[in-house]
Structures are given as structure tokens and as C-alpha cells.
Amino acid sequence: MSFKYIDPDNVGYTAGDATELTELAFGKQLPGQEEIAKLRLGNTGGSDATFTVTGTSTNTSILDGFTISDDGETYVAMTTGITISNLKPNAISDVIYVKFTVPDDAYISNGTIRLDVAES
Amino acid sequence: MSYERRGTAPVPYSINPRALHTNMFGGRHILFTHPDDGFLFAGIQWGPEAGIIKGSDNEGFDWATTMPHSWAGSRTEITTGINGPATGCYTIGSYWFYMLTAEYTASTSSYTIWAASSNKSQDDGYDAFEDVLFLDETKSNGMFTTCENHEFAFFIFTYLWDGSYTIFLKTINGLSFGSSQIFSTTDNYEDIFDATASYEKVHIAALNSNDGSSAPTIDYICYDLVLERYNAPVVVDTLPSTSHYACDLVIARDGYETLCMVWGEMDAYPGSSTVAWRYAISTDDGLTWTVTDMTFETGYSAYKDAINAECVIRADVLGGSNGGFIITYTQNDDSRTGVAQGEEITCEADTSGSLNNKYWWLFTEDTSYYVWYNVSSGGTDPTPSAPSGGPSTTSGIEVAISTDDTASSVASATQTAIDAEADFTSVVSGAVIAVAHNDAGVVKDAEDDATAGTGWTDAWLVARLGKGTPRSFVRRLTTTDGSTYTLSDESDATNTPSTWNIAGAKFFYTAKGKLPNLDVPGNVRIAYQIEEGGNKEQDVGTRLYIDQDVLAVGPYPTAYPSDDGSYTVETAGADELLVTFEIVDATSNNIDFYDQGYTGEYTTSYMDAFSEYGTSVRILKYAPASTSQKGDADAYSAPEETWANIFIDPLSYRSPDRVENADNTIDYVEQDIRKVYLPPDLHLSREFILNDGNYLKRTVWILVYAGNKYELTQVVPRLIDNQITHYECNAYVVGPSYNPFTRVALPSET
Fold first, then answer.
1. CB pairs below 8 Å between A and B: how many?
2. CB of B748 within 8 Å of any CB in chain A?
3. Among A22, B28, B151, B392, which one has the highest count of C-beta atoms within 10 angstroms of its own C-beta?
4. What's the rounded Cα separation, in Å, for the pair B733 and B719?
């Protein structure tokens, strides 16, 4: 499996040139607030590939606050995920949107979830 | 077992196993009240001959010295039986506090009600109590309850009149006991009843036995305070048969004026084998009722009164100002192994065959064992009949001893004989045999036979508990509209360790019919009985304990946002991308956004505007002192001074309104409320504490402006693109009608 998380603001000509994203940070948020973070996915392999992007976390109570979309309009649960089909070698996907709606009863705390990519 | 929370107990201990609940009676004859002045009062049965009132002027931290009152001697000579002593306490208006107790006169078999009153001065608490004769007619076989509304207290008493119970209601206002009304009826009301009052009505729940001719009914009776008459009784529920009976009947109203009754339905009386609790709701002022039948959840069974083993639920109910009710009841947790009954018998020596054919009794739930002595093979089985109160099935335990055996030898031989029975296990130490029952159960205590007994004089000590162990629970009936009520899951009523036996609980009632907001944990205070006590109304050898506490988050059955947890910061694995977040706080939690880094160009612009165009004012910060036991300005430390440039909206000022009072005096009620805008770096930090007097206090911010002082409150942060720009808040002028140091401000008020 060959892919690369890519900073959507620093896209190169190819997946190989693009700046790799090492972390997706939502920063400080208040309960009830909604924020969207973006990323792209690059195919660093030698053939067309289809990727599924999902989210997981040990912080199960907060995971429902995260949703993901491939068009910025229709969001699905992180556990459902989105599919990027037939991404050409060295190509970069369209923007992937991750939305975090902070529950009103969230803990006052730092935390993480993890994006995971599977190739099919 | 040791109990560590005696410091908040109204009394160090009680010797009456019905210290909070007089057997099957409902009602507030044993009452805990919470006047709105920081005082707490607790009416508790100390023993059968003593009702005791205790007061606390610091929300329950100390009970011993300030306002104790008890009746002793003939005034409380209520001996035994189910019509035991009753004690109530309540406030009248702002200054008078009454306590009640019933006096039983053995020669006439009648009751007289006595009251003790105390006047509360504004600053110095309550004066010493003075006894007054409250009910100057002796009534036989009665029980009372009390309730209050905003103006009056009501005393409701049932007594035997012409062969049946009659309900008697008396209105109390200040020092005067108002005219009494007698609810004359041909019905047959039992002394199992309760009442609650609203502005215009006294709502009474009562058990009508129907004289045994038909199944008993739970009745609702309304006394109209405007029309000064009773409405016709409404049957709330009809018990399944004439043998059924009800216990622990209580009633309450909530902020929607919905009524809720709770009672236990016994399968028989006397000799009940189970009880189920019921509740009924009426949303139309008592005209119609919806009854819900509750059954025990798996693993629970009926709690049995320690004295007469009748199945009871020890219920209480409290209504909420925002609608809904909270109910407490008690049942046995069968999953917890109860301590079986045990007895200690101190044997004495035989003297020339003095013990021959003498016997004493040892009981299980099914069998009355007579332990008889066969001295030097000269005895014969006495085959006695079971004594009163014991199971009718008898079985002999023969103890073979020799003439002139010592006490130790008698004890040793007795132990051997008792251990041959599967029901018991005993150990001997010298002359003392400790007999443990192998099965838990409520049984009659061991006793010497009345006619052919051993004559042993030492106490027959008993340590007893029933099947399983008692636990008291709470459940809420919640509503959002006053018409639909939903019952929550049950939760433990107390925060006590799981090994403690909680044998009943009662809510503290606020004075003058006020209702607490049940959605706020900590608003409800509950008293509870630890351990069951002995099997007598005054068992000096078996103590139980009364404790009290606020019904805090732990047992509170409402989902409540928690901020004491945290999330995990994980490590990304192969092919994973870590998504980080930081949840800082809620705007309602009054955080310092400027300090938290919610700043940017908008923040800078606003700060410049405040600096250039704002009005320079002095702001004082008063922090609450945790060690204070006061509820006023003394509960705060000296102020810290801050100067700031702020904006004040002049249009929100209104001149004081002229108010003409009924006595032709005139007040000028200040209406000076202004909208104030604070710069983004001026965060009005607040600290909420429960001080040592148990007063909820928060930091007070005072704005000094134009010769007046204003409290700054209801602060709302304003942010643009997650950048703090300013705070908006309301400024209330401080004056006689508005004291920021004494008013109650909940944490929800920012």
C-alpha cells in the first residue's frame, strides 16, 4: 500500500512533490463549536488504486463528533468512511473534509482520533 | 462496623428502629425541614418515649448544641404498638418554628398533641423553645402529619371517633392556631395518610379501610382553603382484596401542580409476606389518577420492619419546582448476604437438679425450638406449645447435663445439643453460648419460657438482621410539560459504602411549601437510617444511626454533563494520521478567552477602541471565603481593586419606581440595570464554593460608577472568528432590593 497524506495548501505537481501532512490539528474548540479540517491523499504507488479513509479512536465517546466528506457537503460517520476510487499513480485526490462538532457534554481535555487508510 | 460520618448526624445514634419511619405510616410526622435561612431541623424518634428535635444553624455540619429540644417524661409516654410516637417540625412565616409530638395517656388511652415554639430573630437564630398545648382535646389512637404553603402551616390529625378514624385539620398562622375543621365522614380512614399544600388547597392522601366490608381504597381528599370545605373523596386506587392493606402513603405536588402519591401495597395485614410499591399521578388537581404498579427488580425483595416484620417500603416523595418528583423507597438487596440472626445466652449452673425440665426458646422463621435440660436422665420432654409470636411448629432440643453442673458445663452441653440442629451453629465461651442462625431471616428473639423457664437473669442479647440487607433507593419522575411523567432507573439514595445497611430515607422539605429544582444535583437533602436496629421500639443494646447529606451527583439519577474526565492522546500507527483536538471549555463556564489565546486582529482592534473611547471605572472583586459559615457579605474577603476602560449603555437606566405599600408607606424600588461592555482582556473570573456554612457562594464583581455600586453579572463573551472581542454583562445597582452578597446565584448564571 503506497499513499501519502498531503497538506491541501501545499500541493505539488505530483504526489511525490507534495508536502506530506504529519498531523491534522483542530486546535482549541468550545463545546458546541464546529470546525472543518482538510487534507488530500496522494497515490505514491505505481498503479491505479482505490483507498478507503476511515477514523478510529480509543476515545469512543468523542468519535461520533467527527464526520468525513469527499465533497464538503455530505458527511458520513468516521467509522463508515469515504472511498477514493481509481486514483492514478502519483495523483493527488480532491480535498477530503473532516468535520468536528464538539458535543456539549464533552470533557475539557486534549485528545486525538486517528485517520486510517486502506487500499482495496 | 464503624461509621465515619457521625459529624453530620443530627443525633449520635438512635435506639428506635423506626427512627425515621413510624412503621407503616406515611406522612411527615417525622420530618426534616430546611427553612430558607441556612437552618436545618430534624425530628427523630429517639426511643419509644422520646421524640427529639435537633437543629443546625450551619447546614448540618453541627447539630448538637444550637437548638435541641426533646420531650421527656409523661409528655412522650407513648409506649408500644404501631401508634408510636410522632414528631414533626416546621416553620411559620420567617420567624416561628414549631415542633410537635404526641403524648399518650395510658389511663385514658388517648393522645394529646403538644407543640413547642421558638421565635427566630433575624441575626441570632432561634430562641429557646416553649411548650404549648397544641391540641387541647384528647383523641385516642391518632397520628398526625403536617404541611405548609406560602402562608400557613397545616396540621392534619386522624383519630378514632365513633369507631372509625376521622381526619382533623388545623390551620396555623404565626402564634395563633386557627379554627379547626373536622372532616366528618362515614368512611373509615386509617391513620395512614399524608398531606401537601398549595396556594389554595390542602391535598390529603388517606387509606380508607371501608370497614373491612370491601377492599381498602387509596383516597384523595381536597380541602379548599378559599371555600373552607372538603371536596368529596376521590378513589385513587382500590386494593386487590379486603385482606390487602397499604403502607407508607405519601403525597407531593410539583411546580406544575401535578400531584403524586406513593404507597406500598401489602398482600396482607397483619402477616404480610410481600409489598409492592405504587405511584399515582394526577394532572387535573386530583380529579383523575393514573396508577403505576411497580414490582421488585430481580434480586430484590420486600424490606421487613425490624419490629413486627411487616413488609414496608419506607417511602417518601418530593416535588420539584421545575416539574417532576423524586421518590425514595427501601427494599432488600438479596444479592448481599445478610447477617443471620444471632443470640448470646449466658447459662447458669444447675443446683440440685434445678434445671431439670426447664427450657428456653430459640426461633427460626418456621420453628420454635425449646432447649430443655435433662438433668441426670431424670427429665422428660416437656413438649410445650409455641409461645406467643413464635412459629406454631415446635421442636425440642434436649440438653443432657448432670446434677450441679457448672455454668460452663451447662453451656458446653447446650452448644453440643444446639449444633446438632442444622439451623444453628454455636460457639461457647465460658458460660456464654453465641448462637448463629445458619439462614438469614427475620425471627423472634430467643427468650426464656414464661412458666417453665430457666430463670437465668442475664440479658438475652440479640444481633439481628433480615434476609439480605436493606438499601434505600431514589427514582425520579421527570417531565417537560407537566402532563407526561417518565420514571427513571433506580439509584442508591446515599453515597455510603456498599456494605452499609440503609434502612429508609426521608427528604428534607423546604419551608413554606417551596420546592427545589430537582435538576440541580445538590438541591435535595436527604436523611437516612443506617442499620435496622433491634426488634423493639427501644432496644438499648442495638443502636442505629441517622445521617444526612445532600443528594449529590453520585446517587442523583439524572444524566449530568461531567467535566472531570479526559480524553486519551494516542500515537498514530502505520498508515494512520493523527487528528488532534483541544476542547478548552464552555462559554458558560466563564473562562478567560484572552488568556486562553483566543485572540487575533479583532481582539486588538477592540482593545484599542476600549482604550481610546471607554470610560475609566473602578471595579472591585470580592472572593468568597471557604472558611466562612455566613451567608451574607461576611462570607467574602476584602475586595481587590481593578481599573478598566469600559462602555456603559446609558439607555438601559430607569429611574426608581414609586411603589405604594398596603400600609400607605412608599418605597422607591430601584430599576437601575445597565448593559456594560468589558474589554477582551478583562475577564471576570468567578469561583463557586460551598463554604463551611454550606452556603453556595460565588465571586462578586462590583462596578463603582456615578456614585452607585453595581453588580456585574450574566457575563456573555463575544467572539469573532474564535477571537475574543469583548464581554457583555448586566449591571444591577446595589441597594436594599438587590444585595449581591446574599442572593443565591447558581453556577448557571455566568
1. 125
2. no
3. B28
4. 27
